[in-house]
Amino acid sequence: MHLAYPAVLSALLFCTGLYGVLARRNAILVLMSVELMLNAVNLNLVAFDVWLSKTTEETLHSGQALTLFTIAIAAAEIGIGLAIVLAVHRNRGTADIDRLRDTAEGHEPDGPATDTPATGTAAEKAEATA
What we know:
This protein is mostly helical. It contains five helices and no strands. It has helices at 4-23, 27-56, 62-92, 97-105, 122-129.
């Protein structure tokens, strides 16, 4: 098999993952797109390792070793990233990246703006929300 086939497939996977990172708003979909990009890199590493080992007659497969290292890093990244996203979703009620960015910067969430001051005491407000 020629080197061009896995290289083109890897480039397509990487571009798909890059589009997912740039276009998606959901944090879980962004993490999945990052995983797709890492898998494209893994495919490229293995393809070039096989191609170079055929041309130089070497037995050291450094591309495959780097692939295993990348898989381990990707597993840790997705585990920690998913835990952070779930914790943020529990606290704020959304995994939308734009809304999370707006709340971190201090902007008010989208919704009807009220210019009238709130009336009533704290006890009345507590009863209304209960």
